[in-house]
Amino acid sequence: MKKLNYFFIILIVILLTGKISYSQKEIFIKEFQFELKKLSANQYENEYFLTITLNKNSLYKFTVLNHIGDFPGNAIVQILDGSQMVATNSMGDKYYEKFMFKCTKTGFYDILINFKDNKTGSSLIKLFLVQ
């Protein structure tokens, strides 16, 4: 009986330490706030655009917090490498408030943010490095 108790204690310790060693750490990098109070006839005025540097073999997490200040829009975040979209949080009818991006090359990436269905909105987007 005593051996069985020791076995379970050792098993629990191994499982707990194994779980801790596999947990991911998120390092906050930057946040972007985009607010669109009224729509413009010029589509470019309804978007928020910025350029950031991302590193090869790094995993990034984007979180989107919508409806700040009672605006109805959901922010669509697109990551562009030149003219090619490499990641987004909106695919057809599916919308994700959190998404990951595995960077395959170091360089400048464009972040394009607009609101779904041409609505007004206010959103906060946070960028994390996942280790």
Give an account of the 3D structure.
This protein is of the alpha+beta class. The protein has one domain: Jelly Rolls (Sandwich). Helices cover 16% and strands 50% of the residues. The chain has one helix spanning 2-22, and strands at 26-36, 48-54, 59-65, 75-81, 84-88, 90-91, 94-95, 98-102, 107-115, 121-130. The strands form three sheets. It has a four-stranded antiparallel sheet, with no helix packed on it. Strand 6 (90-91) and strand 7 form a beta hairpin. The N and C termini lie far apart (42 Å).
Main β-sheet, in a few words?
4 strands, antiparallel
| Secondary structure: helix percent | 10-25%
CATH class: Mainly Beta
Average pLDDT for all residues: 88
- The total beta strand count reads 10
Which range does the strand content fall in? over 45%
CATH architecture: Sandwich
Order of helices and strands: HEEEEEEEEEE
User: What is the 3D form?
Assistant: elongated
What is the radius of gyration computed over CA atoms, rounded to a whole number of angstroms? 21 Å
Decide which structural class fits the backbone: alpha+beta
User: Which fold name corresponds to the CATH topology?
Assistant: Jelly Rolls
Strand order of the largest sheet: 1-10-3-8
- Unreliable spans: none
- Cα-to-Cα separation, first versus last residue: 42 Å
Total helix count? 1
Overall structural domain count: 1
Q: What are the SSEs and their pairings?
A:
Elements (H helix, E strand, L loop, with lengths): L1 H21 L3 E11 L11 E7 L4 E7 L9 E7 L2 E5 L1 E2 L2 E2 L2 E5 L4 E9 L5 E10 L1
Antiparallel strand pairs: 1-10, 2-9, 3-8, 3-10, 4-5, 4-9, 6-7
